[in-house]
Amino acid sequence: MSASALTPAHQSFLAFDFGLRRIGVASGTRMLGVAEPRGTVRGGDFDAIAALVKTWQPDALVIGVPRHPDGAPHDMTTKAQAFGRRLAGRHHLPVFEVDERYTSVEAEGEGARDVDAAAAALILEQFFREHP
């Protein structure tokens, strides 16, 4: 979804670092501009994601979309975008995309115990910086 669709009503978010085997999850609020890692779910486990949406009741969702270093899309770009469309269809929430190149590497470099969840938090904080 285009960032122009972001409204003041969108204050709480769940973010996802999409992967085929694991999906990192983080939550946060726009007011604080800070995200907290919330763990990792098995790739494709939409029941676990639904439980997180029910628990956190976000106003919108954010997904990290990977790209090549030059910004060009690749196979995982398409899969992450399809994941976002599926989330939007299942939860009837806006889904915003963030370019997530290098978030896992950054999370590893920071010594994160759960790299996927930490990467999701980085994705969400990037979204907050881009859309204050």
Notes on the protein architecture:
There is one protein chain. It contains four helices and five strands, in the order E-E-E-H-E-H-E-H-H. It has helices spanning 46-56, 75-91, 103-109, 115-130, and strands at 12-17, 22-29, 34-42, 60-65, 95-99. Strand 1 (12-17) and strand 2 (22-29) form a beta hairpin. Helix 3 packs across helix 4. The chain is globular and about 35 Å long. The relative contact order is 0.25.
Keyword list:
4 helices, alpha/beta
Tell me the layout of helices and strands.
Elements: E1 12-17, E2 22-29, E3 34-42, H1 46-56, E4 60-65, H2 75-91, E5 95-99, H3 103-109, H4 115-130
Parallel strand pairs: 1-4, 4-5
Antiparallel strand pairs: 1-2, 2-3
The largest beta-sheet arranges its strands as 3-2-1-4-5
The proportion of residues forming helix, as a percent range, comes to: 25-40%
Class by helix and strand content? alpha/beta
Order of helices and strands: EEEHEHEHH
Count of DSSP-assigned helices: 4
Cα-atom radius of gyration? 13 Å
The main sheet comes to: 5 strands, mixed
The total count of strands amounts to 5
What low-confidence regions span 5 or more consecutive residues with pLDDT below 50?
none
Provide mean pLDDT, rounded: 91
Please summarize what this structure is.
With 132 residues, this protein is of the alpha/beta class. Helix content is 39%, strand content 26%.
